[in-house]
Amino acid sequence: MPIATMPQRVRAWRDTGGPEIQWRRLDVCDGDALGQLIRETQPRAVVHFGEQRSAPFSMVDRQHAVMTQVQNVTGTINLLYALRDHAPDCHLVKLGTMGEYGTPNIDIEEGFIEIEHNGRRDRLPYPKTPGSFYHLSKVHDSHNIHFACRIWGLRATDLNQGVVYGCETEETALHRTLATRFDYDVIWGTVLNRFCVQAAMGQPLTVYGRGGQTRGFLDVRDTVQCVRISVEHPPERGEYRVFNQFTEQFSVRQLAELVHEARAAHGLSTTIQHVQNPRVESEEHYYNAKHQALLDLGLEPHLLRRTLIDSMIQTVERHRRRVDLDVLQKPNVDWRLGHTRTSRRAEATVA
Q1: What domain range includes position 283?
Q2: Mind telling me the catalytic residues?
Q3: Model confidence pLDDT, tens digit, residues 203-222
Q4: Domain annotation covers residue 166
Q5: CATH number, domain at 113?
Q6: How many domains does the structure of the chain reveal?
Q7: Taking the alpha carbons of 58, 59, 64, 69 in that order, is the dihedral positive or negative?
Q8: Which segments within the chain are labelled E, that is strand?
Q9: What distance in Å separates the CA atoms of residue 237 and residue 19, rounded to the nearest whole number?
Q10: Is residue 212, in this structure, part of any structural domain at all?
């Protein structure tokens, strides 16, 4: 997708007549700069998405793992101190991940679990078994935010988000310059994006292992809904709450079959190819995650089957001449060994 610079995006948003947006660049690992921003703006709510976002990136090698942990954990701690010192009543809305939980053989609750041990009961944070250094950084964030709420009386909502799909929101559709990213490579891409691009280019849909890996998914429009709902319904002072932010559960194999069916409906054929799984994960497992809190607050989900047909496949077809076949390679980051075949994109990013 052609992506504009941030100043261009802000100007395009103004051209649509949208509410005023002020934008500035800063490093969340610069605690002084972040503190000054909070002191100047005195926000009622802060939505924190400022983190390295890729699990494969974090597993390339030591340098990538350290960069991920330093940026994500340090940035969040800096923000917690900035809020404590300059806006203690502000509501922090933090993007977490369902990957914090892993794939336990019991139901996944929303952040906390009631347990009984040796005749005593308590409500404790749900056990975490993350699958990458990226997901570990999110677990550290959750513990640090929970601590800050308990000790300093901050208020926070941790949005444990599933895998996001979709190409646009009502706002981004107003102007072509507001287009969102559509990543499909092995470092930044999502599995559904990869399948859609592979199908458009006549390549097999590459399923890691047996394809039984199951996760929660949601439309990007629902991501925006969830953030809005969280801001409009803040927690109490000192309260740390967790919302599991997804709308449907699918296995990787089911996603491949959905893309195959959507293409077949238009008379186009696809094939599904199973490749060696580079990740260390259970490929067939129990997965039942609760996600009721946001529905109770008014979330109205968009479902994948309709979005896949109406938006994603059409978008890929419209931009298929821009596809870079080099990044549709087989996975080149092995969780056990690190980066075995260095990609230009990963080198450029970490540099």
Answers
A1: 27-335
A2: 97, 134, 138
A3: 999 999 999 999 999 999 99
A4: yes
A5: 3.40.50.720
A6: 1
A7: positive
A8: 45-48, 91-97, 112-117, 120-125, 155-161, 163-165, 205-208, 214-219, 240-245, 248-251, 272-275, 333-334, 338-339
A9: 29
A10: yes
